[in-house]
Amino acid sequence: MKKILVVEDNSINMRLIKMTLGNKGYSLLEATDGEEALAVAVKERPDLIIMDVRLPKVNGLEVTRRLRQTPGLSQIPTLALTAYAMKGDREKAIEAGCDAYIPKPINTRQLPEVVAEMLRRGRASINGDASGAENPCR
């Protein structure tokens, strides 16, 4: 069973993500701030992280940067979520080390598809896709 760490400080969004992915056979872990996200990632070594960008204590982009510098955690695929979908935000998320980006409100049809694709491909193949084919994770 694949473990997914969901890092989200908004309880409504957390519930929506859990409902959307809960019946897909994943083990869902939760964190509500950046410090907790780092601690859970170190302890549990999830297969994927869904990361809210705006978090208390340490923001999601900084958490992702730290994960990318941590042996054993640097290859975990990370999906950024944000309600602040302004021009350049996707690029900032990718520069911080996120592998894909989905704006809020969360599209409950798109999220499971992107998660499944990210788990199937892994981090290296998502970033290294030079085929020119459309990448549903980007």
The number of E-state strands comes to 5
Report the C-alpha radius of gyration, rounded: 13 Å
Biggest sheet: strand arrangement: 2-1-3-4-5
Shape: globular
> Which structural class matches the secondary elements?
alpha/beta
Name of the CATH homologous superfamily: Response regulator
Overall mean confidence score, pLDDT: 88
Could you explain the architecture of this structure?
This protein is an alpha/beta fold and 138 residues long. It has one domain (3-127): Rossmann fold. Helix content is 42%, strand content 17%. It has a 5-stranded parallel beta sheet, sandwiched between helices. Strand 4, helix 4 and strand 5 form a beta-alpha-beta unit.
Write the SSE topology.
Blueprint: E1 3-7, H1 11-22, E2 27-31, H2 34-44, E3 48-52, H3 60-68, E4 78-82, H4 89-96, E5 100-103, H5 110-127
Parallel strand pairs: 1-2, 1-3, 3-4, 4-5
Helix pairs in contact: 2-3
Summarize the structure.
The chain contains 5 helices and 5 strands; from the N terminus they run βαβαβαβαβα. It has 138 residues and is α/β, with parallel strands linked by helices.
